[in-house]
Amino acid sequence: MTVHVDQALLQHVAKLARIEVASEQAAATTAAFAAMVAMAERLADVEVGDLEPMQHPDHPYPDARADEAGAVLPPQALEANAPRFGAGGFVVPRVVE
């Protein structure tokens, strides 16, 4: 599958990522984005059928800690570091319209 990257797609992705691409940088950013997409598309051509999945390339069997419940932070501690907090949780911007 080949994805055609143009300035319209760049602006759409920028809107989803909530970033602003200046008009004078749009052509260079579109070219860089197209290069990244092309590199990702090349990964589909890599034959990996006979390879075993690895969790980490340097140490395939890491010593994992037990999955146990730990101490729970009080809401006041969470609220102190949150940019927006309400109704007992973090307030995040809506990304799906």
Explained architecture:
This protein has 3 helices and 2 strands, in the order H-H-H-E-E. The protein has helices at residues 7-17, 26-42, 75-81, and strands at residues 85-86, 89-90. Strand 1 and strand 2 (89-90) form a beta hairpin. The longest helix has 17 residues, at 26-42.
Helix residue percentage: 25-40%
Give a quick account of the main beta sheet: strands, pairing sense, barrel closure. 2 strands, antiparallel
Which structural category do the helix and sheet elements fall into? mainly alpha
Question: How much of the sequence is in beta strands?
Answer: under 5%
Number of helices: 3
Which stretches are poorly predicted, pLDDT < 50 over at least 5 residues?
none
Q: What is this entry, summarized?
A:
The chain is mainly α and 97 residues long. The chain contains 3 helices and 2 strands, in the order H-H-H-E-E.
Keywords, separated by commas or semicolons:
36% helix; flat; two-stranded antiparallel sheet; 4% strand; mainly alpha; 3 helices; 97 residues
Draw up the topology in text.
Blueprint: H1 7-17, H2 26-42, H3 75-81, E1 85-86, E2 89-90
Antiparallel strand pairs: 1-2
